[in-house]
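Reviewers of the previous submission asked for a worked example of the structure-prediction workflow described in the proposal, so we include one complete record here. The input consisted solely of the amino acid sequence. No template or homolog information was supplied to the procedure at any stage.
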Amino acid sequence: MNGSGTPDLDGPRDVIIRVATGLFGERGFPATSMRDIAREVGMLAGSLYAHIDGKETLLLEIIESGIAEYISEATAALAGMEDNEERLRALIRAHLDVVARGPRTTKIVFHQWRYLGEENQAVVRKRRDEYEEIFVEVVEAGVNDGSFAADLDVRITVRSILGALNWTPEWLRFDGADPIDVVARQLADTLVLGLSRR
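From that input alone, the workflow returned the following structure tokens.
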């Protein structure tokens, strides 16, 4: 049962992942123990291993799921769009929409993946590269059709945009005076301005 007295439809693994996401996002991966997670879930630490084989597995699952959400939102945002400046703006808005739904998850996805072992880091790099390539394709297309400056270094441009977006959970106020669509438009104006033809 949850706090409202209705059945909790999440299985134990879902609850563990949700709790771990909150703790990793709040305290960071190194400062969170399996005992901490177990305490929040309401089970003995040893019982966690019936559902998950370790803390790094939890981190990897959270990160992979998070990146998949970004890729899904980005792909959906581009559907039916042709103007490359508007496509880039749509990607920026889609990214912020995901951040707004889960700022703690974003901090984990883009800042705590370095705590993974090398093999799991390689898995994450591959998925991050897939997300980056969505932006690269749009910026390259914009350079080719004259929407953006011909002398842009596409890779540096995309990584600069993503670097700015990935830090938004540190300063974006989701309960602030400006709704997310206003902030997204203002941020897109700032980021896209530097790509204009010179």
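The two ends are 61 Å apart (CA to CA). We consider this example representative of the routine output the project will generate in years two and three.
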